[in-house]
Description:
Layout: E1 4-10, E2 14-21, E3 27-34, E4 56-57, H1 59-77, E5 84-91, E6 96-99, E7 120-121, H2 129-141, H3 159-169, H4 171-176, E8 179-182, H5 183-192, H6 199-205, H7 217-223, H8 230-235, E9 245-248, H9 251-257, E10 264-266, E11 269-270, H10 275-278, E12 286-291, E13 295-301, E14 312-315, E15 323-329, H11 333-342, H12 346-354, H13 359-367, E16 378-380, E17 398-400, H14 408-432, E18 439-443, H15 445-449, H16 451-461, E19 465-468, H17 473-485, H18 492-499, E20 502-507, H19 511-532, H20 538-551
Parallel strand pairs: 1-5, 5-10, 5-11, 12-18, 18-19
Antiparallel strand pairs: 1-2, 2-3, 4-7, 6-8, 9-10, 12-13, 13-15, 14-15, 16-17, 19-20
Amino acid sequence: MKKYSIGLDYGTLSGRAVIVDIENGKELASSVMEYPHAVMDKALPTGEILEADWALQHPQDYLEVLAYTIPEVLKISGISPDDIIGIGVDFTACTLIPIKADGTPLCFLDEYKHNPHAWVKLWKHHAAQDEANELNRIASERNEPWLKNYGGKISSEWAIPKIWQVLNEAPEIYDAADKFIEASDWIIWQLCGKETRNSCAAGYKALWNKTTGYPSKEFFKALDPRLENVVEDKLGTEISPLGTTAGGITEKAYEMTGLNVGTAVSVGNLDAHVCLPAVGIDGPTKLLIIMGTSSCHIVMGTEETQAPGLCGVVADGVLPGYYGYEAGQSCVGDHFAWFVENALPADYYEQAKAENKNIHKFLREKAEKLRPGESGLLAIDWWNGNRSILVDADLTGMMLGMTLQTKAEEIYRALIEATAYGTKMIIENYRKHNIPISEIYASGGISQKDPMCMQIYADVLNLPIKIAGSAQGPALGSAIFGAVAGGGYDDIYEATRRMGTVKNQIYTPIPENVAIYEKLYNEYAILHDYFGRGENDVMKRLKKIKKESRDV
């Protein structure tokens, strides 16, 4: 009798489920649900206006994804819940929820729902940058040894700056929150009725280390005396390794999902990291680029190597027995979408409609007719800050070389090229610090839908790029962990080799394009250091003026 697992992936704008055959990873059905509240960056559902750099979400959306997508894949596939052996879940991170002791989010309670700090802080909530800056300063002055495992800088996207922001701006919410929990762990709690903290999120987003644990109480006290016991009081010290079982589906979760009570639930995971098993990566030197609204660049190694600008190096952070290295870009698909939604002439939409084409497809067809360098444009890809290697959310985007002859498709292509240059900067930083890269894989929506973008990446990186076999890479990766949790495999390595897939298609560098992009990248590198390393802080000054003007 065949057995199956379910993978559930929570992204920035939607959640999706897949049901797969554990024998070979074949997907039988998938279901996607967009979050009804999307990203709340302007106002709360209750009407309160949000300040700049806020990005919140509604946890009810996450529950609705459970209640819709899992029954949907069971229905579409015709698979009986009796044949589902396990479920795995991944989430964007750091996505942080303040909750009561029983797991109830504070924003569900009438007395707190009008306060922005009671809601979910999404990964791209950057309003805690002041806290991140102060944390980095204090950690550096104290020579905290763990800081080098995060490239020497902590991002405002991570857990401690977000928690500290709550304490600074809404101490009543901090006091009311019995815990702060990653959304990945909260969803696992809703499924199996048990609180767990996964090692991936704890390691990459909350400063936990497998060997040394969290930073010391003395460090947290140095940040703020009120934070001295933040780990014990608000986070918890019991960390669950990846690939282990969190528990089984409860009666309440059965009513939501239709899965049998007792069905195994894997410990939670992060969306980017879970993609490596989905493409069959089971060892070091193979870099996976997960390309969506933002991008992550993850590779495994056999040694713990510290390098500036990394998001983290974590033992067992991807697969047991290896060190997982993470870097990333905060703005990829996000700023392609921004350009299309805000900067296209009306006649482009009219032409696309006349040709019965999606606007992205119409624009891409125009852009792919351009030769590298033809537009004379060069962009900087910091439209949502820089995650790696500068780790600075106060940096902003830039477009250089525009004239009165510049066309929309030229700008669009330059934005894509900028993200490729940013990726090359990350890869060169890995190699410079003895973290070898031998192969490149790509996963995520852009890798599946945009051949022009992938060819640009191959040309800029001057390396072949293999493409994930699944359009739902994180969900497949979670299903692989679900299969292990349910006893379908003895370990994650065997499951990865059997269930991970890549397409036959490989994007190969075109030599004449490589030569041109090398010149453009050299110019990008100059601008990267000039604007990003303090020689000219005009981006930050402009951002400060913008904030002051809004506050008047």
